[in-house]
């Protein structure tokens, strides 16, 4: 598509800048694997966004990862800013995590019974996170959120849930209503197969709208069991909220006897050890976490005060169980990862590195008068092709995704990997070195030149 672009412009220092697009990398083996996969799996994938429907080409089949790099089946090497959608905060194949996993599996991989590893990981988390007193391990973020919703309903004896448009909380039925993430990628706002009666128990309002919240609580007085929010919404762009809005949310929930659930599957242990709760210094009633607590392995958790958590079976009447909950291999990986996150200065160094990266890209775009805004918090960032502030799902122009589509292709051809959707955020890990980030910045600069200075 870009092969004919041969224009030369001058950059801000008067040096020539080429807007020639890079030739496409080879995806022959990935394409073969994808064709075979389509005979096994719906759409050839086991999670929708992996299908590359929002970007050019066929999906890349990843063969290995190490540090901040991944390699695909064709041998192409990329600097990775997807990081398995966030949990690989230490990068791929971290030595300490890997060694702990190998040590653990020498004794077996699953028992369906308690192990000391569960105690050890829970103690590491709870002793260093003042926002929760007890925790329950599960096998995914979706399961954590589903369990938190059930707990809130059981605790309050109410049925309705309030969520926000643009926040994604996994694929459980009552929460697939105007959700973000892969659903927005494909232009959908709900899922087939979700009974209307389930959706009717879910109230959806826009983010950053106090009046809408007040109206909902007035209309459904004494019916709302919980308000669930990504305090740092990062599944439909990075829709950063003002602290005062989140504080207002805390206050209106308290006033109405409604539980406030912070879905920190992405933000938890990312922006800081105590996640968004610690970042904003706001106490939610329940917090959910995802794979980051297991070094990227399939695991999740939800936590709250001891009083609330003691409503969970076998102590209380809210039933929740899981055959692989507290899986020893995931617990071992989590112990190694969480121990690293507790190292003095870890978050300071990581977040400073990420901030410098985001600011450099923003300076470049501003100097070029490119319509691009880089949103960032902690080690999370997002590129929005706009010159406006974005805080709600409605603020995102769907047409801007065409620019991301071109950018994604150019970045792949320059050895940089982002998640295959413009609605998804990027992540920086401790494994991204200064050299890696400089290479990535140059690739991003060149890609932006192609996107904005071409006629295609």
From TrEMBL:
Cofactors: pyridoxal 5'-phosphate
Annotated pathway: Porphyrin-containing compound metabolism; protoporphyrin-IX biosynthesis; 5-aminolevulinate from L-glutamyl-tRNA(Glu): step 2/2
Compartments, as annotated in UniProt: Cytoplasm
Keywords from the named record: Cytoplasm, Isomerase, Porphyrin biosynthesis, Pyridoxal phosphate
Domain of life, source organism: Bacteria
Modified positions (N6-(pyridoxal phosphate)lysine) in chain numbering: 291
Molecular function in Gene Ontology: glutamate-1-semialdehyde 2,1-aminomutase activity
Transmembrane segments: none
Major site of localization recorded for this protein: cytoplasm
Family named by the database record: Belongs to the class-III pyridoxal-phosphate-dependent aminotransferase family. HemL subfamily.
The protein's assembly and partners: Homodimer.
Protein's recorded name: Glutamate-1-semialdehyde 2,1-aminomutase
């Amino acid at each position: 598509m870009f092969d004919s672009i041969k224009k030369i412009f001058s950059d801000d220092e008067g040096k020539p800048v080429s807007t020639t697009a890079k030739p496409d990398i080879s995806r022959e083996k990935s394409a073969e694997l994808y064709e075979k996969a389509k005979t096994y799996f719906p759409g050839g994938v086991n999670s929708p966004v992996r299908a590359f429907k929002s970007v050019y080409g066929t999906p890349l089949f990843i063969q290995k990862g190490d540090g901040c790099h991944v390699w695909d089946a064709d041998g192409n090497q990329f600097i990775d800013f997807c990081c398995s959608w966030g949990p690989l905060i230490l990068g791929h194949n971290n030595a300490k995590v890997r060694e702990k996993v190998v040590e653990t599996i020498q004794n077996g991989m699953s028992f369906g019974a308690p192990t000391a590893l569960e105690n050890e990981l829970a103690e590491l988390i709870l002793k260093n996170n003042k926002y929760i007193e007890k925790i329950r391990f599960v096998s995914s973020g979706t399961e954590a959120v589903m369990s938190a919703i059930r707990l809130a309903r059981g605790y309050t004896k109410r049925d309705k849930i309030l969520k926000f448009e643009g926040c994604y909380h996994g694929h459980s039925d009552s929460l697939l209503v105007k959700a973000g993430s892969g659903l927005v990628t494909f232009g959908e706002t709900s899922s087939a197969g979700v009974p209307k009666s389930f959706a009717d128990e879910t109230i959806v309002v826009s983010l950053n709208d106090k009046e809408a919240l007040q109206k909902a609580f007035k209309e459904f007085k004494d019916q709302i069991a919980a308000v669930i929010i990504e305090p740092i919404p990062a599944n439909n762009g990075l829709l950063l909220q003002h602290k005062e809005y989140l504080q207002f949310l805390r206050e209106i929930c308290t006033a109405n006897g409604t539980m406030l659930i912070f879905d920190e599957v992405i933000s938890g242990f990312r922006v800081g050890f105590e996640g968004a709760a610690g970042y904003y210094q706001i106490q939610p009633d329940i917090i959910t976490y995802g794979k980051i607590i297991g070094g990227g392995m399939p695991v999740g958790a939800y936590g709250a005060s001891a009083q609330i958590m003691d409503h969970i079976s076998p102590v209380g009447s809210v039933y929740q169980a899981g055959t692989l909950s507290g899986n020893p291999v995931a617990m071992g990986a989590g112990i190694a990862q969480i121990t690293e996150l507790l190292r003095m200065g870890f978050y300071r160094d990581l977040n400073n590195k990420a901030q410098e990266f985001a600011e450099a890209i923003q300076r470049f775009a501003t100097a070029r008068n490119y319509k691009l805004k880089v949103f960032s918090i902690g080690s999370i960032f997002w590129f929005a092709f706009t010159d406006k502030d974005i805080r709600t799902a409605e603020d995102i122009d769907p047409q801007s995704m065409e620019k991301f589509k071109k950018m994604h292709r150019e970045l792949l051809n320059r050895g940089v990997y982002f998640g295959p959707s413009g609605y998804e955020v990027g992540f920086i890990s401790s494994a991204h070195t200064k050299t890696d980030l400089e290479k990535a910045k140059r690739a991003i600069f060149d890609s932006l030149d192609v996107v904005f200075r071409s006629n295609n």
